[in-house]
Amino acid sequence: MSLDRPEGEGTAVPGSAALSRPGLRGREAELERLRALVEAVRDGEGGAVALLLGEPGIGKTVLLQETVSIARAHGFVVSHGRAEELHELAPLASLASGLLRGDPPLLSSTDFADLAGHHDQRIWLVERLAQLIEERSAGAPVLIAVDDVQWADPLSRFALSVMPARLLSSPVLWLLTGRNDPEPYGQGPLATTLPLRPLSDTALAELARDVLGGDVPEQVAELLDGAGGNPFLAAELLTGIAASGGDADAPEPPERLVLGVRDRLAGLRPGTLHFLRIGSVLGRAFSLADAAALCGRPASGLSAEVDEAIAAALLHDDGERLLFRHDLLRQAVYADLAPSVRRALHREAASRLVAAGRSSTDAVPHLLKSAEPGDQEAIGLLGTAATDVIAVMPDLAADLAVRALELVPPHAPMVFDVGERAIVALTRAGRYTQARDTGDTLLARQPPLDVFARLQSVLGDTLWHLDDIHELTRRSTAALAAVTDPTIRARLTARQALARSRGRDLGAARETGERALAEAERSGDREARVLALWGLGEIALNAGDCAAAAEHHTALSVFDTAFLPEEAVARIHMDDFDTVRRLLRTAGDAPLRPAMLSWAQGTLNMGLGRLDDADADLVTAERLEADLHVPGNLVNIRVNRGLLAMLRGDREAAREHLDVVRATVAERPNTGNHATHQYFEAVVADADGDHAAAAELVRSVQRDHSFLRWRLLRPHVVQAVRIALRGGDRNLAEDLAAQAVEHATRNPGVPTAQGAAAHASALANADPGLLERSVRILLTGPRPLPLAAASADLGRALLVAGDPAATPTLTRAHDIYAQAGADVEADRVRADLERATSRPGRRTGGLRPRPGQGWDALTASERKVARLIAAGHTNRSAAEALVVSPHTVNTHLASIFRKLSVRSRVHLARIALAEGDAGTVTGG
Fold first, then answer.
1. Which of 389, 524, 619, 686 is 20 to 30 A from 769, alpha carbon to alpha carbon?
2. Is the separation of the CB atoms in 548 and 555 below 8 Å?
3. What is the helix (H) or strand (E) element at residue 430, kind and residue range?
4. Distances (CA, A) of 649 to 324, 687, 822, 825, 850
5. What is the C-alpha separation between 480 and 478, in angstroms, rounded?
6. What is the pTM of this model?
7. How far apart are CA 175 and CA 25, in angstroms?
8. Structural contact between residues 564 and 597, judged by C-beta atoms closer than 8 angstroms
9. Per-residue pLDDT reduced to its tens digit, 650-676
10. What are the tens digits of pLDDT across the range 884-906?
């Protein structure tokens, strides 16, 4: 290759795309793209993400630092942090490294302490962190830069995967660097991924002239070929050549880098060499105190070694920690250690850190590189670390717990205790098959009977999530025959009650649940009591006993507020909407289970006939579950969204939801999901005109999933009766109606249960009198859509009979459907109304469908949110004004931006102003 200077190069105008200067040779195009992103965010174009990818030494950090300088010059508030390889067990450490620094820092130490206090609530923490950043960005644009994200701790990785989308409308630029593993950070329409390629020959020529001056000898050019276009390797090679007077005879990089560093180390004093090797074990950045402890010397006695390492251009002192000038330098020092020496130093580092009072999260990374079977201290520390991080980083906790188990000698008595923790961690992480296999391996060792029972107890949670009800029943029964510990007995009995809630004999299941609750109260065990109350609530719901379900779930919610969503849903079944509103307001911003709270809010809005709001709530619940990678409620969410789409007349959307349901059920078979899926298939088949197939699907739900009968058909029994009648199966229709009557008898104080029973019986028996009774009852209840359905059927019956009361009855049905956005049903009733009236000039067209784009595409709630954001509200303050969660506001905003084709709050404000639609908004 030739490194002669191309004519005219090196004289670029500052700010142009051809800009080239030392340190940034060959990166002009990438730098200009980053500069354009900075300017776009500054100018109100919304948020953006830039991800710089490439091998070590390729120039990511230099570009990041240059972009930080550009952003500061443009008035950005900057957070500049770095992830560390040995710090990935400390929750939020990677983000905190930048958020708490800077002039001024993006977050105060008080803000961060408040966040850290809730590190076990990932969704709450990220939402609160996003709120703080959003508030800060209202005064000035923000740049959040994180170097080496491949080493980020799991909580920081989670935050970085969620927050850019959450803050898309705010002037926040995310700049991340990492190896060739982008994770989810670079996803989305405003994400820019810049893979850094090897430098061109021209750029290497400029780099060589920067270091050596003048023309570059051909021998050096040939040697630079071995750098593979890596600027750091090339610069180190050139520095070495310059220092040796131009001698280019040496091995190729990266071997040359190791040898070059070794040459530098050889000229150091032995104490400095030992100090650097200790530092390389501690990581890219390390504290002098930690290194001193590992050296066995006071920190004050290491000043000469530190000075010499800095003078040798190996270390840098940032005022708080010592850093290797580049991670490749640390790797070169580390690689020069014999593997056995590395292992011993890591083990010693772990012991020294523990002795110095550091947490298990500081010591465990070293143990993972050094612990050997039988290392009692390592087993204990790994277990402690797993317990510390399981709430926020369950996958990591599972890995740590499994590693601890691997270190236990096979016949050591502690293997069962350590194994039990591994089963719990694996189950918490959703690795159910591995958890079951781990438990079965331990059980094959024939533990003592009480240990056998304890292991079966923790495996009960695993089997429940695997939906292996038969095995859960078998194992809990066998363990109960062996157990003597009253606490474990109470837990096993509660597990058995849960299993029996899926059976046909719900009376026996209730007796088991009551016995479990009594045993739990006698033993004073919290877990057993939670399981027993949960089981009793499930049994009551499956039996259709709404009052008992509400009672048990209320007791459970009082005992553990995490179950507040379950209480809310149980009370929705009671038509107790006022209490549900109070419960959801009480939940407010508390760090509970936001996905389930959104599900409960969506269920309430469906009951209230607020279809748009219900759909937004369900979208929010699905997004929150996806953020956590635990889509346990996905089938129910998509089925309900599909049914809403059918009411709106959007068959295409309904089929998209059905496709997701089919794929999910195929991937994760589950008895309850199967029943829900079958019912949705029945509704779609019926709408497509395949009435016989639809009726057979409803029949299969009744036949194969009796325990879910009322959980599934409670809100849909009238529709199920219609499907049966259209399918020509009057016996099925009459059976469904009889069940509805039985359900109403069990729930005398629930208007919807009474009205639905009368409506179902009226359809099955063609009895107009029962339709009148249904309407009278439903007029006293809180649900408009069942009232509209009964009114429509009654109006049609009156129309056939020539009764003039048909018109006001049909008008009521039409108005309810139209207000709810149930366009298909509204159009059907409109057609009936046209037959009932003969007044000329009556509009005969159907309801005008809402457009897909533009201001008119916004729902009423989206307009409220748009007005508030346009008026300067943050997501949090908008949520407070509307009495909804910030998560729901996020969902509305995403939909608003998509429908209006805008990318920032600035653009949204302009549109709202042009529409003259920025009035005062309150919740309701």
1. 686
2. no
3. none
4. 63, 10, 8, 8, 11
5. 6
6. 0.80
7. 20
8. yes
9. 999 999 999 999 999 888 777 778 888
10. 888 888 888 888 888 988 878 88
